[in-house]
Structures
1.
Amino acid sequence: MARGRGEDGPHEVDRWVGRRVCEQRIRLGYSQSDLGNALGVSFQQVQKYEKGANRISASKLFEIAQFFKSEIGYFFDGFTGAQAGVAEPASGFSHDHPSTRQSLEISAIAPRLPVRQQKIILSLMREMDGASDDDAED
């Protein structure tokens, strides 16, 4: 097994932390080049960090947190992976799609809308995705 890789690719913690770096970078309006310049690495290296393909060292994670003015714990918030001694590892992800500026904006605006409007938008998004309202839970 390659270092940092499970049978199905990058370790779920590395993917989770990478996704959180990506989300925070987008939320704060930085490009991958901006972050790479701050860390002294290429934007390609930032891409690999964000995908979890390359692990972020503790020192780089510290630098990222300083650059974003975030707590290091932010990058692990919400992770629900396997606990020590548990035979079946649980995935920390609710989806495997990268965050975009638009998806982050949607998630920020949605809670401010009345429930009726949220339901209309959700129905439209499900229709666009090919899922029917009958397939969804309320």
Note: Confidence is low (pLDDT under 50) at residues 1-5, 84-93.
2.
Amino acid sequence: MATLTVWKFDTADGAKSALHLLERMQKEELLQLVDAAVVSWPEGRRKPKTEQLHSLTGAGALGGSFWGLLFGLLFFVPLLGMAIGAAMGALSGSLADIGIDDDFIKKVRSEVTEGTSALFVLSANAVTDRVLAEFRGSGAHLASSNLSAEQEAKLREVFEEPAEGKHAEV
């Protein structure tokens, strides 16, 4: 079973700094990193900067389409207007089927604001108490959405980018 975890930091560079902690926990086998992305929102900026961590992603990573949709729903739809918002709203229904519901989106949207950052991690096989203890000293705040094995498979089916040399069916 995979878990989508959002670690919120009170500084715009906190999430980027926590990457070393995440890498170390993976080496210590405290979690299996499937995919990750960073959102940083410096003071004075209208919108956050988002970055998928290609160098950290594991086999079967979800790819840019997943992160693009999620970050669009979280940070950019309110800025784009009603027509685009309605289209994104329809797409978000499929996210609810895989464990990312409106409550999760509203909670993250309200917490990740100007002057903060967040580390989005899709992980598996986490030693939860040890991972929480490791992050406790970083000043991070945790918001998470657990995905069942069925939900994870559905998520991969919808958003996984085709492997090199393979083409997605249309």
Note: The helical segments are 14-27, 64-80, 82-96, 102-111, 128-136, 149-159.
3.
Amino acid sequence: MRIVLVGPPGAGKGTQAAYLAKNLAIPHISTGDLFRANISQGTPLGVEAKSYMDAGNLVPDSVTIGMAEDRMEQADAVEGFLLDGFPRNLGQAEALDAFLQSKGLKLDAVLDLEVPEDEVVKRIAGRRICRKDSSHVFHVEYNKPQTEGVCDACGGELYQREDDREDTVRKRLEVYHSETEPIIDYYKAQDLVVTIPALGKVAEVTQRAMNALGHGE
């Protein structure tokens, strides 16, 4: 299957993508991983991306599209893939369609993880990260540490990242609404969108998505 996963920041795309890709036996292709891999390997696209990032500029769509196309042509993605974070805007969606058409392929579904905006803000603004080990993540409501402000795992100080502050989260949501949300209508016109309510336990959301794809238990 060839699937695109969309949803606002805080919808749980990364978590759901990992589970869905495993259940469907297809690679999870995320924009973040693409950038890290290309930059660490020093590929021409990675070098180009890094030059923009080092200058504090946005990486052009052409570079992101090039990285995604290279990844989709790798052997493990021949039978399908799950795209997470790409396409991010209409231009990228049109480029993805053109790429797939050139290969005689098409998308099977676009999964839209739906979460109320207030819940998104609560999820992200409530996150607290350990300064010693950023893989230790807590939440002021959903995953409280035993001692406020202290990491259960290593005793490090817990803090709120700048990106997680409420005003920043609301700005990120504005960008999502203006840039990414239009691709949902674009794909609705192709009858590809499946809306998945993303509230509830992770396993429950995964099962809803699997059921919608016709792979339920």
Note: The CA atoms of residues 7 and 13 lie 7 Å apart.
4.
Amino acid sequence: MTTNLHHRLLILSAIVFNIACGGKNTESNVKTPGAEKSGKDKALEAAADVIQDKSPLSAFNVYLDGFHFYNGNINAQMEAHHYVQQLSDDLYQAIIFDGNSKDAKIMGVEYIITEKLFQSLPAEEKMLWHSHHYEVKSGTLIAPGIPDKAEYELMEKLVNTYGKTIHTWHTDQERQLPVGAPMIMMGFTKDGQLHPDLIRDRDKRFDISTPKKKAQRETIPFGHVDPLANAWEKGHIRQFVIENKADSAIHKHQ
């Protein structure tokens, strides 16, 4: 079986099992403000759901659940539900929600690249990215609902990747609207960083055991982690700021 065909079968199994289980067990952190949708709006939505093509959305066919923290504040932690599309063998993109039910809010996005692409980045850019080696090896990153073998092989692909994550709606702070500056997020890199209650709560909802997954993944090999990734560990914090300058917008669009 070729690698591409084998990977397609894994994705297919992920879709089937994610439909059957592994979702609809985590409500959004905030209630939607404003008046309830009108009957006319609901009718328009129903018609659009049948008529309109949604190719970009249908390509997000893998569900990953993990944890993030705000770059520069490791105690500000939250669960993150990733819906992932693989664009190529070296590049993924994900939409991040604060839950997996129909009222989930989009918290942000994550771009995931392989070691090969990461090494092509300039030094300053690398400092915005985090590694996934610990998330995979610790069992804290999961693909809910898919068979253990398929999850293992998916984690083999992800263990040496890097992610650049930006949250735009801070629902973990119970903000009912997406206010404030977007924030760069980071991933955990060793035991003792992630709050145990977050893991216990997640494991209970999904009926899984993170320690068991950690044991299952002991045999997943991983390579060298670039020292410029996870820059927060060395005290190098990068965050967005709101300012009144155009940020070189002229030359970016010439």
Note: The chain has a mean pLDDT of 89.
